[in-house]
Amino acid sequence: MKKFIQRCSNSPTLTCSIQNSFVSDSGQYWCENAEQRSNAVSINVTAGSVILESPVHPIMEGEAVTLGCRHKTTSSNFTADFYKDGRLTGSSSTGNLTIRRLSKSDEGLYKCMSGHEVSPESWLAVRSKSNTGGGVTPENPVNEVVFPAANKQMTFLLHIYVLLWVSIAVVLTLQLLVLGLLYWKRQLVLLEIQMTDPSKDLDPVPNKVKKNKDAADSLSLDFETNHSKNPEKDEDEFLPQTFQSTHW
């Protein structure tokens, strides 16, 4: 849980001291400056007489680290057992446990036991070497990357933009499906009508065009009928013209 330390907020220096620490002061600590944030360190405060001294910062793979079991009332060396994630990992008559050539498998929660007293657990973080060479990749699960507010806003706008285009594509697809279904249904209706009444004209030619065509056919028929009824009259009109042409 993130909690702001009021008594250190107005400190003019880069350090923050906690006087008369209590068990409630245990937890993860870090400092922030504008949009930047430091690595978190774990601080454990116990009311018991046994504590475990361990590095608060991550240790790089391949290096060595020494864990110390300290007794509040005893300054001399004493035998201590060391546990990692609840399992016994080693014992020491000097109260110190050295792990040579750290690996990622050594990362975890450590505690020590002296007699019947047990220290609080402390997290040992191990950094892995980068595959590109020389770099170090932090593996502490407590560490967090703080992005500028502008980057978060750009990410949000990008998500909205993608969602908008996806919605448009879905709407267009649904419209095409509806139009296709309507056209298919219309074709089925026309086919059913034609199968039920084959003599019914399904020609989509307008009635006005048909009427004009029928009128033209009727006019042609009347002209032929009149011409066939008066053949003698036509010949009489033609003969005088022929006679006059001969007399001339």
From TrEMBL:
A Gene Ontology BP annotation from the UniProt entry: immune response
UniProt cross-references to Pfam families, sorted A to Z: Ig_3 (PF13927)
Stretches the record annotates as Disordered: 201-248
Record GO terms (molecular function): transmembrane signaling receptor activity
Spans through the membrane: 160-184
Record's keyword terms, sorted: Disulfide bond, Membrane, Signal, Transmembrane, Transmembrane helix
GO annotation, cellular component aspect: external side of plasma membrane
Domain (Ig-like) ranges: 48-132
InterPro entries on file: Ig-like_dom, Ig-like_dom_sf, Ig-like_fold, Ig_Fc_receptor, Ig_sub, Ig_sub2
SMART domains reported for this sequence: IG, IGc2
Protein name stated in the entry: Ig-like domain-containing protein
Species per Swiss-Prot/TrEMBL record: Amphiprion ocellaris (Clown anemonefish)
